[in-house]
Amino acid sequence: MKKLIVVALLAFSLFIASCTLPGGKAGTGTLVLKLTDHENLDYNKVLVTISQIEVHKDGNWTIFSSNEQTFDLIQLESVAVLLGQQQLPVGKYTQIRLLVTKAQVEIPAPGSQVTSQLVDVTVPSDKIKIVREFTIEENKTTELIIDFDPDSVKQVGEQYIMTPVIKILTPSEFEEKIKQNKKKEINASQQQNVSSQTKKKELIIELDDYGTYPNKVTVNKGDMVKITFKVRGNNVYYGGLDIKSELFDTGKIPLGGTKIVEFTAEKTFTFTSYWPSSSVKKADGTVEVV
Description:
Immunoglobulin-like; single chain; alpha+beta; five-stranded mixed β-sheet; 21 strands
């Protein structure tokens, strides 16, 4: 009987030990949060102060970080900076919440010698909630990148309001975003080079009932062509002219009036002037593309 009691006490002691020793605790893993942003063309600065970060699991919010930090989102394009790193119990989490205590944007200061000024931005409820499931695994690190869109700052009357659009990215998704941004930059640069190499040809052609002056103009293929058609104030007997071609129809141009047409030169074509609202042809002209 004594032996049975001793065995029972020993088993109970081992059970208690398993509940109190570190090896018996619920497992933990590490969460690393970083912050990045999209390109913004409206502001030179978008300052956001984040004073607390919380994560949501099993119906409860847990403070992940209470280290107040201020970021200029404009400086974070294609860059991910550390928001915080913390050990959390293993399991599935469903949301992240940011407490934003201050937000400002830099805008021009009209009527002042100062070139710009910072104005306050309202963040509804001062909290930004991000719904995204993620899992913390035992003895493993989970890295997530909060992708903040500063274009969500809009002016409403005299106020500026932030209704941010935020995504949660994994490191691989972030790297893919960087690659796509670089491709866009390269494409934009190439298009700019092509545009700078494309010449713009500006021409003036006068017309009356008896002809076009000059009768033929010559441009290079690929040129951006701008033609100003002018109807002379004499030798026009129907109140104006309408110039038509396969590329454009000016509609009625009154006596002494002008009309501008623009196009990219691809092939030689002719244009014809008509009395307005009629099929009566008056004169032809040619745009020769070489």
